[in-house]
Design brief:
This protein is an alpha/beta fold and 223 residues long. It folds into two domains: 26-160, Trna Endonuclease, Chain: A, domain 1; 177-217, no CATH class. The chain has helices spanning 5-13, 36-40, 45-54, 58-62, 105-112, 128-132, 170-174, 179-188, 200-221, and strands at residues 30-33, 67-74, 79-86, 90-96, 118-124, 141-148, 153-160. Strands 1-7-6-5-4-3-2 form a seven-stranded mixed sheet. Helix 6 (128-132) links the parallel strand 5 (118-124) and strand 6. Helix 8 (179-188) packs parallel to helix 9. It is elongated and about 60 Å long. Mean pLDDT is 80; it is low at 17-29, 34-39 and 217-223.
Length: 223
């Protein structure tokens, strides 16, 4: 499992956490009680988030070196992933509840695949078969949401575990940083000359190239 230098810098700079990488593979199932009225209206997004906090996300939430962010915007706010866990890698969680549909998921998945190292879809059982047919989420983990009406609870079950995403776009990851954060990282590496007036996306491109060049040099020196 590779932790790239760009994601590490974003995690340490933008989100103020260490570069320790914690990957949660297998997710234990979890049941959370919800009220009768909510059950009558179907399993809601908020019910699933509650189950996630007590299950798949608990180890992240309990870790002081990890930050869990809800509604994290990417691609300059064009897309927002439901939950992101940041700890040296970027883990994204997208929820599709009983009352949702999957019409937006292919486009969302293409965007998320450019930023997050690991991704998990939390999907209601009504949408499971259709979701598993989507090529855009082939490397995503999948958690199944089951409504247990006799116990008034939501249950999350692991269908498959996530595989590290090999299609992260360094520029898209850099765009998570503010302009002054990008300039600060470039200045630390003596690469800020001639770029201070450049548009933010150009700064992101330069930063991603500089960081990966530094990483390649460091890797070469090790062998």
């Amino acid at each position: 499992m590779r932790m790239d230098p760009l994601t590490t810098c974003v995690c340490m700079g933008r989100f103020g956490r260490s570069s320790k990488l914690i990957c949660r593979g297998h997710v234990e199932c979890c049941s959370v009680l919800i009220d009768n009225e909510a059950m009558g209206n179907g399993v809601r997004d908020m019910d699933i988030r509650s189950a996630l906090r007590k299950g798949a996300l608990k180890s992240f939430i309990d870790d002081p070196q990890t930050r869990v962010i809800e509604e994290l915007g990417i691609h300059q706010g064009a897309f927002r992933i439901d939950i992101a866990a940041v700890n040296g890698a970027l883990h994204g969680y997208e929820i599709k509840s009983e009352i949702d549909d999957l019409s937006r998921l292919p486009a969302q998945a293409k965007a998320y695949n450019t930023v997050f190292s690991f991704l998990t879809l939390i999907v209601h059982e009504n949408h499971l078969d259709a979701a598993l047919e989507l090529s855009e989420i082939a490397r995503w983990g999948v958690l199944l949401v089951k409504k247990e009406s006799t116990r008034r609870s939501v249950r999350l079950l692991t269908v498959r575990e996530s595989i590290q995403n090999g299609h992260v776009d360094p520029t898209a990851v850099s765009m998570l940083l503010w302009r002054d954060e990008m300039l600060g990282l470039l200045e630390e590496r003596g690469a800020d000359c001639g770029v201070r007036s450049k548009p933010r996306r150009e700064l992101a491109r330069v930063l991603s190239n500089v960081l990966f060049d530094c990483w390649r040099v460091a890797q070469s020196a090790m062998y």
